[in-house]
Amino acid sequence: MKHAAGASSATTSTSPSGRDNDEYRAVISVLVDNESGVLARVVGLFSGRGYNIESLTVAPVEDDGARSRINIVTSGTPAIIEQIRAQLDRLVPVCRVANLTTLGPHIAREMVLVKVVSTGEARTEALRIAEAFRARAVDTTASSFVFELTGASEKLDSFVELMRPLGLAEVSRTGVAALTRGPRSL
Amino acid sequence: MNAATQTTAAQPNASTTLSGAEVLLRALEEQGVEVVFGYPGGAVLPIYDALFQQDRIRHILVRHEQAAVHAAEGYARSTGRVGVVLVTSGPGATNAVTGLLDALMDSVPLVCLSGQVPVQLIGNDAFQEADTTGITRPATKYNYLVKKPEDLARTVHEAFEIARSGRPGPVLIDLPKNITVGPAPYAPPSTQGRRSYQPRVEPDREAVREAVAAMRRGKRPLFYVGGGVINAGPEACEALGRLVHMTGFPCTSTLMGLGAFPSSDPQFVGMLGMHGTYEANLATHDCDVLIALGSRFDDRVTGRVDAFSPRSFKIHADIDPSQINKIIQVDIPIIGDAGRTIAAMIEEWERAEGPAPDADALKNWWEHIEGWRALDCLRFTQDPAPDAIIKPQKAIQRIYELALETGRDTYVSTEVGQHQMWAAQFFKFEQPNRWLTSGGLGTMGYGLPAAVGAQLAHPDALIIDVAGEASTLMNIQELGTIAQYRLPVKLFIINNQYMGMVRQWQELLHGSRYSESYSSALPDFVKLAESFHAKGFRARTMAELDDTIRAALAHDGAVVVDLCVAEGENCFPMIPSGAAHNEMILGPEQEAQGAVVTNEGKMLV
């Protein structure tokens, strides 16, 4: 699930490399009927066909709760990503599938909660870095902080890395929520 | 007394309120269901009780739930209708899984009704409880767990619609016992389809136009048709015949597509793939325009992917968009029903825009094909002496020829292995829906129950199961079903005392180390037949072969024919795993081409 340091920044680019055998990271959004078992269908498709899930988010997105949006970050060659899209589209309760990475400009955001346990110099440094990242301290004790930070996955990666020598105790990430830029919608 | 009064008082109400089981049967009836293949058990007793009290839907009691699904497949594939299965919870449902996956791989429309423990017991590890929707999720096109009575009727109608539309497949409905016992409202089928499920049937005209333009430019064109054309219906197959004839192109078929185009037509070059004909495989390799209709570039068809039809412009028409570019990159994808695509291709071809097809090039192409055909790749030598051992190829060829002599409408099912491939090679199918075989999943034990389903759908037709002695033992208990319903199924066992295809691979790939592939301790099939109230026959020599087959075909009841054949025959031609189409191994009769199985090929199955 963790994004490797220095990995391709395809999540923020508008299109993959254009070369057929290069793997790229894709953000796929799936609009599904909100019924029992639908998440298992989607996840089972990935495990059954040997595709990779780097992160996944799911929640109802309509007022009546009739439909949910699943955002999946995955990686593969263009042919594999296209197969993933086509296989998802084939599932009966799937209404729409879009590969946001190739669809055009899009925003992908994630939230992380980071617990840092430290005192003295390390604690001060953690707070200073948190301010630089515009992370909020949502829980504070004499010996610990829980920071909340929202942003692109790479930014969260950097923040977590910087906290590591400063008493990093626990990390909880949400996975990516994503939308296309501009007036077009899924 | 009080209770009785109350019951009487409730009577008018009760007559209008149906139980869930009654609602289920009414929905089945409205969907045109005449036959259900099943096996009772605790969780489905309410449904069996409702079945008992009506006579519009016939229930066929099988001897194993796997066989119920294969029988429903045989029924569905021989009629084009949705096959229906009824099994109980737990082991009933898990026994059905192999059949469901078989139907999924071969795109067979089925609705499987499974019992489930009452909703309030789900999750409690109740007696005969299984997470049936969880287990069958990857083995079905779609599945349901009905938790509310008001969802029951709608669910059944929707299940049938999903099973038969788009790319057909199996749909399972898990029915908790409290739903079938308790009252439920009936609802007719909705005219509106489900929003999230709208399969595309009408092909894009522009894509068809481009495809036909490419076909006109082709100098070495080839049609490659699959089961999708058969699923599109007999009219689609007829249209295919017109298209092939008006273009003059050669036509090859997958295992599942046999019968879509008449096998005896001179433009048919035989099946392609691992055990396809020499001419079909070389034509596939050398063609310059490949028109794939309702086929999916299965690994048994393509051989080595990077050497598959390397110089051709590829057109791929399929109703399932996920099949496009899955294995082979194509130049023109067409999404839609095969029948409508073929009809659109005919219109475009007749419109005759663009350059006329190159008749000289096509003539030259046919000369090439005739040259390959002249090799006669299926030829084998049979010692004609009366006491000679029968070759399995000979046995299957004579079953075909003598069945043809009867002049009866004939349906053929098979098990899986060498006999299946020989049947595909030697039987000629002039019409669709006559060939029932397990292609994608390769399920041994498929043929006998499939024959049951086909015979029930076509009581007057000749139904033959070409079987191997190993495969048929996997569902031999269905001789009981055959006896109970007096089905005149003809089971021909090509008995070489080996799991023939396993033995063949062991000979070719594993230094003739025949690990566990010998059929030890076989039953006496003649006595076995008699114990199941059928007639048993046996032929050991050439002198006995024809008479035995004739007598078996003429018998008006079920027969089991033990055809004792040569043990060591291999099925040729064969494209070894990891080889290209132009690297076939030919039979001893034809000159060996020296194909070598690479280590990489050994890893493949």
Automatic annotation (TrEMBL), chain A:
Q: What Gene3D superfamilies has UniProt attached to this entry?
A: 3.30.70.260, ACT-like. Chain A, domain 2
Q: In which pathway does it act?
A: Amino-acid biosynthesis; L-isoleucine biosynthesis; L-isoleucine from 2-oxobutanoate: step 1/4; Amino-acid biosynthesis; L-valine biosynthesis; L-valine from pyruvate: step 1/4
Q: Where is the ACT domain?
A: 27-105
Q: Which GO terms describe its molecular function?
A: acetolactate synthase activity
- Enumerate the PROSITE patterns for this protein: ACT
Which principal EC class is assigned to this enzyme? transferase
Q: Which domain of life is it from?
A: Bacteria
**Family assignment?**
Belongs to the acetolactate synthase small subunit family.
Q: Which protein are we looking at?
A: Acetolactate synthase small subunit
The organism's taxonomic lineage, starting at the top: Bacteria, Pseudomonadati, Pseudomonadota, Alphaproteobacteria, Acetobacterales
TrEMBL record, chain B:
Q: Which UniProt keywords apply?
A: Amino-acid biosynthesis, Branched-chain amino acid biosynthesis, Magnesium, Metal-binding, Thiamine pyrophosphate, Transferase
Q: Where is the Thiamine pyrophosphate enzyme N-terminal TPP-binding domain?
A: 19-133
> So what does this thing catalyse?
2 pyruvate + H(+) = (2S)-2-acetolactate + CO2
What's the name of the protein?
Acetolactate synthase
Q: Which Pfam families match?
A: TPP_enzyme_C, TPP_enzyme_M, TPP_enzyme_N
Q: Which residues cross the membrane?
A: none
Species of origin: Acetobacter nitrogenifigens DSM 23921 = NBRC 105050
Q: What does the entry's cofactor note say about binding and number?
A: Binds 1 Mg(2+) ion per subunit. Binds 1 thiamine pyrophosphate per subunit.
Would you name any one GO CC term?
Answer: acetolactate synthase complex
Thiamine pyrophosphate enzyme central domain spans which residues?
208-344
Main EC class the enzyme belongs to: transferase
Q: Which domain of life is it from?
A: Bacteria
List cofactor names only: Mg(2+); thiamine diphosphate
The pathway it acts in is:
Amino-acid biosynthesis; L-isoleucine biosynthesis; L-isoleucine from 2-oxobutanoate: step 1/4; Amino-acid biosynthesis; L-valine biosynthesis; L-valine from pyruvate: step 1/4
For biological process, the GO terms are: isoleucine biosynthetic process; L-valine biosynthetic process
* Location of the Thiamine pyrophosphate enzyme TPP-binding domain: 416-562
Do you know which NCBIfam families this protein is assigned to? acolac_lg (TIGR00118)
Q: Identify the EC number(s).
A: 2.2.1.6
Q: Which family does it belong to?
A: Belongs to the TPP enzyme family.
Query: Its Gene Ontology molecular function terms?
Result: acetolactate synthase activity; flavin adenine dinucleotide binding; magnesium ion binding; thiamine pyrophosphate binding
